[in-house]
Design a protein that fits this description.
This is C2 domain-containing protein. Keywords: Repeat. This protein is of the alpha+beta class. Strand 15 (about 700-705) and strand 16 (about 710) form a beta hairpin. Helix 5 (about 180-200) runs antiparallel to helix 6 (about 205-225), helix 5 packs parallel to helix 8 and helix 22 crosses helix 23.
């Protein structure tokens, strides 16, 4: 043991002794008994207690020891001559702490030097008076543990190892002390989410779900009997007390909106507490590292977390919000401000600030946002990935998702960097992706800032600012992160890189991506990189590499759902109406919103530009003129969309390459000539070249799964106007037959010929989620889009009208089943609503068809959950329990047990 090792203070309570041998001569009366406690050569002694066989002291002493391996000796003896009492007990400090950790008394055997058992002594040892470390000792240990390993070991001659003995104590956590408290918090979080859903408050609900996800993971760890300090169990009890606020919310749900800011802070603090418990228990990103490097400062940190929760609960009760910061598990250290801004300025810009980015509306894009948050905060077992790539066609909403995710992490104090390369001005455009990332890392963490400044100012090497990209990444990113070992133990830290394809010079993004994915193993595992990019060939190649796939999670962002686009239009039209006092309160109509939503076809960029087009001098007239235009257009000139399409095409390939131009024209020519989407096999390129290669290069404007189609019909309109597209290679002159061909009749024909009951031969006992792949590609797209090609101001020829009537009377429930298989059952009612509007505005004399559609809409909404749960429930759950016999189906044929149901309970159906 080094003489420089820091002693640690303990509280020793000597309580009593029992079963001591009685004096042989009773006439001598009771003994005067004392206990001496000795550790590392220093002793304390109790007062004298007169007793026969049981002594009681209840005295408290402060003792010190440098090592937990030191032995505590307890000597019980008589204080007067003529007594034979002399017995003792010994135990290591670490063993005694383990047995006393939860304020429990311990009884030790007392034995004589020559005789056997001579009684038992009851004592208690702790590091604190109330279950937490004494502040002074916590600060001392934190100082020792915060030293760099190499210098600390040299300076203390083993001090770190000595303190590690203390932190290595491992005891099971009593379920009653922590696990049950967290179960109670989870129950209340789940209860709150149900109340919030009913109250339709989407702002704070995502934070509640996030808190539930992370806290549930922490609960599983505690149930597994992890080693955890008493103060963490106390924190769990505090969390349980704070979450009694859910009872008040249940009584007055409207209070969610009034106090959503305070409630949101409670949820965010809950996430921090749960992440801390997970990391401290050794089951997080840092493994056992946290207990070895930060254990001494744990109680002070936990006390701060608990106090914040208590303060927030007080704010909830009073309804008065004051400025309070979340106590984050991440520890930020102030560094010198001398010349730091000037030095960091050499890195250049880090792009557009997060606060300037548009985010998803509350409640929209929930699936992908929740998936990213779940991946970043609570990785599944065996998942070694630390890079999430979100790619998709131009204008699909990737940047909005990136900004939303980054904002969530920022609210939790877990955002390590946000760099946006998306179409910024020359002053804001980052120089290189590595410099931009380093600038953002420096802005978010003072410890990293100090290291980055040191690297920039390092005169012993060539300047890092002019080094090759791989060297910049190694010196500015890898070594900077390695300079802060504690970073690995601070839970997940998100680094968001938006619109990577726009960064630097051409192909800079590809070089950066290559360096990043190959260096992932050199980075702390708790760094969670989230990258958005257009679906271009290099991105596809990088993220499908068999060598790197275990480190990467790739996800294509598809078109927004009908409900998301509709919510956006409702939000924007409300903004426009509030700006224009002369606009009527009921503007626009529900039918107009439905038509706008249908025209967007899930394409967010079109929705944005359409809203901006309406937001002008006379919004009602602008909206009317927009809805009277062909589907593909917003106006003759549409600079924002045109700029987007030009940028997407320019990045697709080399337009001076004759072969690439030839393939592009062959692919687009096939698409334009077809009245609907086409399978890959229908595209033929010269010289038998594979169509997949150029289609992947055109991934910013084309999708090819399951069929090849453009990102939005307006893109074809862009290509058909030489003035708008600006290049002969992109220009396609087409006639009215090619542009105006209405595919609705073709879609109805496909559905009438392909749909049937139980089309995938499913059973009710097991729902095979891969059954969607069994549907033909042409039928899939027909089911998903037929209603969007029936336009309110258009007409159907007699043949198409006959097919519509046949479809509504014969195959409507078959279509319900198919949409459930495709996980699109939520689109059924909006699509039928569009058909009902069309039937209403075309004023058919026979009103029964419109009544049939309205009845089907009611049916779809009433049994939405059943239809979504299993495709066959439309026949065996929804149909039998509908009121009366629906007019839109052959009830007796599709519900064969109907005539028995008034008397019998139907036995379980195993196969259809």
């Amino acid at each position: 043991m080094s003489p420089q090792s820091l002693p640690v203070a303990y509280t020793l309570q000597i309580i009593s002794a029992n079963g001591l041998p009685v004096r042989r001569f009773k006439h001598l009366g009771d003994r005067n008994v004392v206990t001496n406690a000795t550790v590392e050569g220093r002793s304390v002694q109790t007062k004298i207690c007169m007793c026969s066989s049981n002594a009681e002291w209840n005295e408290t002493f402060q003792i010190e020891a440098r090592k937990t391996s030191s032995v505590l000796s307890l000597q019980v003896s008589g204080s007067t001559h003529g007594t034979s009492l002399n017995c003792a007990s010994e135990i290591m400090i670490s063993d005694l702490l383990q047995r006393c950790l939860y304020e429990q008394d311990v009884e030790l055997d007392l034995r004589g030097s020559k005789s056997g058992l001579q009684g038992r002594i009851k004592i208690r040892l702790s590091l604190s008076s109330n279950g937490s470390l004494i502040v002074a000792e916590a600060q001392q240990l934190a100082l020792a543990l915060a030293r760099q390993p190499n210098t600390a070991m040299a300076a203390t001659g083993g001090c770190i190892d000595d303190i590690d003995d203390l932190l290595a104590i491992s005891v099971p956590t009593p379920p009653a002390m922590a696990a049950q408290s967290i179960v109670n918090v989870l129950d209340r979080l789940d209860h709150f989410m149900r109340i919030a859903d009913e109250a339709a408050k989407a702002q704070v609900h995502p934070y509640a779900k996030l808190a539930w996800d992370v806290l549930s993971a922490a609960h599983k760890i505690i149930v597994a009997q992890v080693a955890i300090d008493q103060s963490v169990a106390d924190l769990a009890n505090t969390m349980q007390d704070v979450y009694s606020f859910v009872d008040a919310i249940e009584a007055v749900p409207s209070k969610i909106q009034l106090l959503e800011g305070i409630i949101e802070k409670i949820f965010i603090q809950t996430v921090e507490c749960a992440i801390f418990i997970r990391e401290y228990s050794g089951r997080g990103f840092a493994g056992r590292l946290l207990r070895e490097t930060m254990g001494a400062s744990t109680p002070a940190k936990v006390a701060g977390m608990a106090q914040t929760l208590i303060t927030l609960r007080g704010q909830f009760d009073t309804g008065v919000a004051v400025q309070i910061a979340t106590i984050s598990f991440r520890i930020q250290t102030d560094v010198t401000n001398l010349l730091k801004n000037q030095t960091l300025g050499l890195l250049g810009s880090s792009g557009v600030a997060l606060s300037s980015r548009s985010r998803c509306l509350p409640g929209t894009r929930r699936d992908i946002i929740d998936e990213v948050l779940e991946w970043a905060l609570h990785p599944s077992k065996g998942d070694n990935s630390n890079l999430f790539c979100l790619h998709g066609v131009a204008g699909i909403g990737k940047s909005a998702v990136a900004a939303t995710v980054a904002t969530r992490f920022s609210d939790m104090g877990r955002l390590g960097a946000f760099v946006s390369f998306d179409r910024v001005s020359s002053e804001q455009k980052p120089g290189t992706p590595v410099k931009a990332l380093a600038r953002q890392m420096a802005a978010h963490d003072g410890r990293l800032r100090a290291s980055i400044i040191q690297v920039i100012n390092d005169d012993t090497k060539d300047t890092v600012l002019e080094a090759p990209l791989s060297e910049q990444f190694d010196r500015l990113i890898v070594k900077t992160l390695a300079s802060v070992p504690a970073l690995r133990g601070e839970g997940p830290i998100a680094i968001v890189l938006d619109a990577l394809y726009e960064c630097g010079q051409p192909n800079d993004w590809a070089r950066f991506l290559d360096v990043l994915v190959r260096q992932t193993e050199s980075l702390p595992p708790n760094l969670r990189f989230i990258i958005t990019s257009r679906t271009v060939n290099g991105i596809h190649k990088a993220f499908t590499s068999t060598v790197l796939h275990s480190r990467i999670r790739s996800r294509e962002l598809r078109s927004s759902s009908h409900s998301d686009i509709s919510a956006y239009f409702i939000f924007r039209m409300q903004q426009i109406r509030l700006k224009n006092e002369d606009v009527q309160e009921d503007w626009p109509s529900t039918a107009a919103i439905a038509e706008l939503t249908a025209r967007a076809v899930g394409y967010f960029a079109w929705a944005v530009n359409a809203s901006n087009f309406v937001d002008a001098y006379c919004p009602p007239d602008r909206l009317k003129s927009l809805l009277l235009q062909p589907l593909r257009s917003i106006s003759v000139s549409n600079p924002p969309l045109d700029k987007l399409y030009r940028a997407a095409l320019n990045s697709a390939g080399d337009w001076t390459d004759a072969h690439f131009v030839s393939d592009f024209r062959a692919i687009m020519g096939s698409i334009i000539e077809s009245p609907t989407t086409i399978p890959m096999t229908a595209i033929h390129l010269p010289l038998l070249r594979s169509a997949m290669v150029p289609i992947r290069r055109l991934g910013s404007v084309l999708s090819h799964d399951p069929v090849v189609r453009v990102l939005h019909p307006s893109f074809v309109d862009f290509l058909s106007n030489r003035e708008r597209c600006g290049r002969n290679e992109w220009y396609f002159e087409h006639g009215p037959a090619q542009v105006c061909a209405d595919p609705s009749g073709l879609y109805l024909q496909r559905m009438n010929g392909g749909l049937k009951r139980n089309i995938c031969d499913m059973t009710l006992s097991a729902h095979d989620h891969s059954t969607a792949e069994m549907l033909p590609e042409e039928l899939v797209y027909a089911c998903q889009s037929w209603a969007y090609h029936i336009h309110p101001n258009g007409t159907l020829d007699s043949s198409a009208m006959d097919m519509l009537v046949a479809f509504l009377h014969t195959h409507l429930l078959h279509w319900f089943e198919a949409m459930s298989i495709l996980k699109k059952s939520e689109e059924i009612a909006p699509m039928l609503q569009r058909v009902a509007v069309w039937l209403e505005e075309n004023a058919f004399e026979d009103k029964s068809l419109k009544d049939l559609v309205i009845e089907a809409i009611t049916f779809a909404r009433k049994f939405a959950a059943d239809i979504a749960d299993h495709p066959l429930h439309v026949y065996y759950t929804a149909l039998p329990f509908s009121s009366g016999k629906p007019s839109f189906t052959n009830y007796e044929q599709l519900c064969p047990f109907a005539h028995k149901w008034s008397h019998l309970v139907i036995p379980p159906i195993v196969a259809i």
